[in-house]
Write a structure and sequence with these properties.
The chain has about 180 residues and is mainly α. It has a domain at about 35-150. Helices cover about 85% and strands about 0% of the residues. It has helices spanning about 1-5, 25-160, 160-175. The radius of gyration is 36 Å and the shape is rod-shaped. Keywords: ATP synthesis, CF(0), Chloroplast, Coiled coil, Hydrogen ion transport, Ion transport, Membrane, Plastid, Thylakoid, Transmembrane, Transmembrane helix, Transport.
Length: about 180
């Protein structure tokens, strides 16, 4: 409790100060100042951060939905390729006598082309998701920093009102004892 009392304005710290003085012990006052600033930042930035995260969540869900549509298209393409493969296999039975090796090459090419297309679509989806996530993280960081800075400046400006300023000037005049004081 003594440390907390010593952290605030000390009334008897300077003998010439009379009824006003400052605590110049930086190590005692910094934790209090930091805790007040952090408390204000958390209190003021919580709603903004939640809104930003909700908006980002909607964008990510939209991106995932688009990726799912791409995946469905790839699956449809794969089904068409499989249907075509079944057709080619039926033709292979018919043409087995005429050139089994040619049909096997066409089958392998078709499977390779389909699997590479599917791989490319999957890679594109993963790259898009990663890019969107990084962009969202960077946007949220930047906006949180801006909101925190604005909140801290607003708090500082609101603490320095004219009444406090006039009381400080009056106390300093009283300490110095000007010529008009008798």
């Amino acid at each position: 409790m003594k440390n907390v009392n010593d952290s605030f304005v000390s009334l008897g710290h300077w003998p010439s100060a009379g009824s006003f003085g400052f605590n110049t012990d930086i190590l005692a006052t910094n934790p209090i100042n930091l805790s007040v600033v952090l408390g204000v930042l958390i209190f003021l930035g919580k709603g903004v951060l939640n809104d930003l995260l909700d908006n980002r969540k909607q964008r990510i869900l939209s991106t995932i939905q688009n990726s799912e549509e791409l995946r469905r298209g790839a699956i449809e393409q794969l089904e068409r390729a499989r249907a075509h493969l079944r057709k080619v296999e039926m033709e292979a039975d018919e043409y087995r006598m005429n050139g089994y090796s040619e049909i096997e090459r066409e089958k392998a090419n078709l499977i390779n082309a389909t699997s590479s297309s599917l791989e490319q679509l999957e890679n594109y989806k993963n790259e898009t998701l990663h890019f969107e996530q990084q962009r969202a993280i960077n946007q949220v960081r930047q906006q949180v920093f801006q909101q925190a800075l604005q909140g801290a400046l607003g708090t500082l400006n609101s603490c320095l009102n004219s009444e406090l300023h006039l009381r400080t000037i009056s106390a300093n005049i009283g300490i110095l004892g000007g010529p008009w004081k008798k």
